[in-house]
Structures
1.
Amino acid sequence: MITVNEHYSKLQASYLFVTIARKVKEFQDVNPDVDLIKLGIGDVTKPLPATCVDAFRKGVDEMADEGSFRGYGPEQGYPFLREAIAKNDFTGMGIEADDIFISDGAKCDTGNFQELFSIDARVAVPDPVYPVYVDTNVMAGRSGTWKNGRYEGLYYLEGNSANGFIPAPPDEKLDLIYLCFPNNPTGQTASHDQLALWVEYAKKNKALILFDAAYETFIRDESLPKSIYEIPGARDVAVEFRSFSKTAGFTGTRCAFTVVPRECRAFTTEGDAVQLQPLWNRRHSTKFNGVSYPVQRAAEAVYSPEGKQQVRELSDYYLGNAAIIRENMEALGFGCIGGENSPYIWVDGKRDSWAFFDLLLSAGVVVTPGSGFGRCGEGYIRISAFNDRNKVLSAMDRIKASIS
Amino acid sequence: MITVNEHYSKLQASYLFVTIARKVKEFQDVNPDVDLIKLGIGDVTKPLPATCVDAFRKGVDEMADEGSFRGYGPEQGYPFLREAIAKNDFTGMGIEADDIFISDGAKCDTGNFQELFSIDARVAVPDPVYPVYVDTNVMAGRSGTWKNGRYEGLYYLEGNSANGFIPAPPDEKLDLIYLCFPNNPTGQTASHDQLALWVEYAKKNKALILFDAAYETFIRDESLPKSIYEIPGARDVAVEFRSFSKTAGFTGTRCAFTVVPRECRAFTTEGDAVQLQPLWNRRHSTKFNGVSYPVQRAAEAVYSPEGKQQVRELSDYYLGNAAIIRENMEALGFGCIGGENSPYIWVDGKRDSWAFFDLLLSAGVVVTPGSGFGRCGEGYIRISAFNDRNKVLSAMDRIKASIS
């Protein structure tokens, strides 16, 4: 008899965005004339940069001709892209092309990476959290049961107003630690010193950090690290996830990458160090077959001089929206985090998250209730800066009118 | 301390194609002037069909304009593609668009699907086998240890000259059964009656069939089933994997799909039926983020009238190669399977697989040794028909000259 993976039954049924979609539909059914402004889900709205489009088209053209046609590519990605990434994104950090694995999404990679570890690994996730870190560990059997709004087997790194939503390493021994900066959902960033504490913790406790840097392109403060590999020693203890989704508007185009430095290690149960890179390479080449060739060419174009300028303009545009949102929410008396080096603004709503969500929905603006990201998100909402400037301005007018 | 998934250490290090690559390199180092003809790996060589290229380009153009730009799409794939597939590939089989999950590869899907089941599921794999079925179950911890060339915890469905490489259901109770027709590597096909025995077995034993139909496009014999859903009752007990890789030359473009009929079930340990479709949907939407939009448009074009004609011409071309290979190998006195409704020809080499590989390599032709696909492949080689016609003809001349 074929029996199902029992751990799936522990997954919490009501996924955040499903509930939002239902509430939005209910509102629209009653208010069909309201043109809702959606500042909820973190999806880009501007088209692909022109130079990426040109490269994408050329890639397609190559596939149309027998002489230039490409079949299976390397599962790890083409050298032209891996080399461009190593050279441009990790200058001086000791990261080489072979350390970089091209994939079709940071969601997939952050979800899949836990497969390399034993089921009894003690997992730490931030709270509030990007739900993929949690759900993939539930599926794998590392979560224990759901009780009082949390999984008993996970360790929650609590963010709150006291620590500015940047949890410090705890005294407890943890094995696999998910960190995300600039953070989704809070938009918070971590300093060199704060990340260095985590690197030190990981060394001391033989832990591994899974560092999600999908939003690094929005960092403008030059004192902030864009990569965890700016911290000395991080190559031994950290894997980094990056994506072209937010950097270059690739959410519907699909390309990302994961950095697994050759120095990075885990351990056997006997305590012997094991190099992670060959393990991930084996996983990646067994369960994945590379990213579409024209898409890899489009991603490569991000690193051309024109590409760099165009993606900078993209993130400047969204950061302009973020500044407008933060300024307006603060003017209304709400405490805000994020929005300066991040496309997300984390707003202390001074009331229940869903109540604030409902209030803003009735004003015609969709946001994301912070409680959907975990217990520590209660009382907050996340506002996304990914939208058209005029819509952001209108949304602020609507919120002002409904709050004042 | 972060400890590694101990099951990875059970994986056999020397992956088939790595060994081939090493031998080819050694040969080329000594014989730099020989222009090797590669009939080994099953990768297409002809460009994308013209109508797919047009649709691909239009999809890219849409991404260049703010009005038509697409961000995140549905993880399950766009309705336009799911509907085209259901309508064209599964007419009269009771498969609907919601049963179809678009992905970036059948390798990924056949590798990932086992995640839905308990670790103690008794897994049956064909021998010879497409290695991904085995390796992904090893990684998950279902294989037991490697001993005498096999995993102790897997059940091997043996193919041999007596059963024509179409194993019949055994008396033993198995839970998760991987079948592949047209078969990789043997090129063998299964009849309605033969598949019906497996469907009956799965019903009786509450088992599940994972049916890999990645090569269905090559079936010309109209008496042969192209889908397992042509067998009555199969929707309850079988999941089917398909791909545009071989159908439309998408090996470097990446698009595939998996059919999980709403009737398909597994069981709780208490024996209660559980619908698989929502489980796969949860897995797919948690660990995957959809296929690139322009790629889905390119795949959709396969189902246009021009697309249908162009993909037929593609498979006709490769089948023409296959006929030449089979005819020549038989004329040399070798027994052959496949090559009539499949791009692979499975040749009884009348000697050790690697010895035959080496002999053909010395003649300047690269094939795949059958023993690399499992114990039952010993003595055979797989010849792939994916190449240019002239190269196939030259390869046959070279083989004839070296054998005679």
Note: The domain at 7-47+306-403 of chain A is CATH 3.90.1150.10 (Aspartate Aminotransferase, domain 1).
2.
Amino acid sequence: MKRIGVADTTFARVDLARYALRELAAAGTGFRVLRRTVPGLKDLPVACRQLFGQDGADLCLALGMPGKAEYDRTCAHEASLGLLFTAVLERKPIVECFVFESEVGSDDALEELGRRRASEHARNAYAMLFRPNDLARRAGAGLRQGFPDAGPARRAR
Amino acid sequence: MKRIGVADTTFARVDLARYALRELAAAGTGFRVLRRTVPGLKDLPVACRQLFGQDGADLCLALGMPGKAEYDRTCAHEASLGLLFTAVLERKPIVECFVFESEVGSDDALEELGRRRASEHARNAYAMLFRPNDLARRAGAGLRQGFPDAGPARRAR
Amino acid sequence: MKRIGVADTTFARVDLARYALRELAAAGTGFRVLRRTVPGLKDLPVACRQLFGQDGADLCLALGMPGKAEYDRTCAHEASLGLLFTAVLERKPIVECFVFESEVGSDDALEELGRRRASEHARNAYAMLFRPNDLARRAGAGLRQGFPDAGPARRAR
Amino acid sequence: MKRIGVADTTFARVDLARYALRELAAAGTGFRVLRRTVPGLKDLPVACRQLFGQDGADLCLALGMPGKAEYDRTCAHEASLGLLFTAVLERKPIVECFVFESEVGSDDALEELGRRRASEHARNAYAMLFRPNDLARRAGAGLRQGFPDAGPARRAR
Amino acid sequence: MKRIGVADTTFARVDLARYALRELAAAGTGFRVLRRTVPGLKDLPVACRQLFGQDGADLCLALGMPGKAEYDRTCAHEASLGLLFTAVLERKPIVECFVFESEVGSDDALEELGRRRASEHARNAYAMLFRPNDLARRAGAGLRQGFPDAGPARRAR
């Protein structure tokens, strides 16, 4: 039985974990979900570290939503470096799923973008643990999360 | 008995620790506070490291107030990375509470912002140690510290 | 028998690994290729860490394609730092091969740039493992990957 | 007997260590000074690491003077991150004292700023080792090094 | 017998190692040089790590030449952080010698700047290993590498 850690925040304006959990449940079985909710983005790295170390997670999904200000971009950058550092130290993947408030113009669009991106990253997380060949088959395919795929530069001819 | 480390600076223009300590005392019992005051922001990471390693803290609250100059933003960024790195190494949370002098226009507003943000981060720190479910219940709720909450993108309907 | 790890992404719009593998096969023998495909750039460092630690790679090739947005440059920067950090911790080389979508103006040019750069970095990877003297002989020669070589500042006279 | 490490550079245009050492001598006794001079800012982190590891320092003072160019700011940022990282790894404080050439307009002002800032940081270093309560008493007091103190936002009333 | 590691690149347009080696030979004896040539700037940190760990170097000289593009500055920044991190982990100095193509306007000037800076950094490397007092004597002297010294702010009077 694999363990998937889910770390999310009270800062986010969308309940990203709800969408991620729903998608994980739909993706398959053979795993258990562990969850830690922290105040903000920069608390995610240590939450993942604890999900790995104390809770035995095999992979973490780190869900966050940087605000609109310039400073929020700095926070996101810092959090990303912390997540990268944690994953490398733990030797286990952290799937980062950040939705920037500034990516869209309305609350409804933010909810919808959050839903789509969290769901698609959750599917990726599932594939990394259980179906790595699904990823290998789509190498270089120009996949995106939350927005339409860009697709490969060279279409099949 | 849990231990909460509080690291603060002589550089800050508001006694953030005073507000944090008052809030912690109001939040509940079952913990002891350890404190280290250092000159500036960049001294906070090693102060937290010592609060964890020498003083046995279970969580640290890092309180700082970057000045108005462009360079102060760089210092804050460096200090944040150091705090993140420390928390990950220690596997224990550091609640970063930074109040930028440039966020407000007067000394009175700075004092007030400092009071509110330090108090709210202290409450978060308490919740992380003693009431993690309080945070989980408010995942995606758009909470803010020091300013009014942004609220969730999708209001309950 | 040496082991070369190849990490690539589903985000990339060109199947960079295909070109790298073809070049490696043409370069010589004495090695086995291990591959891990991950969703995006920031997943590459931990993929390399796993290629080294679990799969026994002696060197990794990290292939990625940052998108056109400003934010993609930040992601590439973060991924690069993660790759550097991983290589230093593992004491083994990671050859980073990033192709930015913004470097060229059309899909065909992107495919071609990807092909050339991935091939040339693969050749470098092979040289690092099997023919380090080939590199030493060309120190200061102004070599480039994907674009024409800049050449030495002082031409042989 | 405590040990204070002092790391400085040949790049700096002011002999910052001289001022720091004078101030340390005036501050009190009970410590021994160890010194390492390196070429530039980026050599300071490993110099401190050696002062801690080989020379047994309990605290280091890292003195540097970034030049006027934009690139010097990048070097200072890199050096700061290295110093932070070193302090956290060693679990011992490094008091960073950087004087930017661009902070003032003349050589005389640079010498004077260097003198004041190095002296004040040396006093802080002494306090951190021997009189931590002096710092705690001035938490939130808006202290500055090299320039007049900003003072607390809320004056005693 | 000390060991000096020299890491350089095929990307550079000047054979910086040649100048460094010549200067080291002129500086004195008592050391052996170990060399590793890698493709680019970002390969230097792990090359130094290997020079220390596998080849037993006591100090490394990292020679690189960032190109003219904005992106090259990012690469240099990343490489610098990797070098700093490596030196701190190894507890041994890495003398970074980067010559930016954009510092000068012609190939001849680039060759000349490379020659001067590599030579002067090599002399520093030698001093760090064998004559640390030479550096201490020139603390705060405003020394530069590749360009004329800035000199001390306060001339001897």
Note: The longest helix of chain D spans residues 107-130.
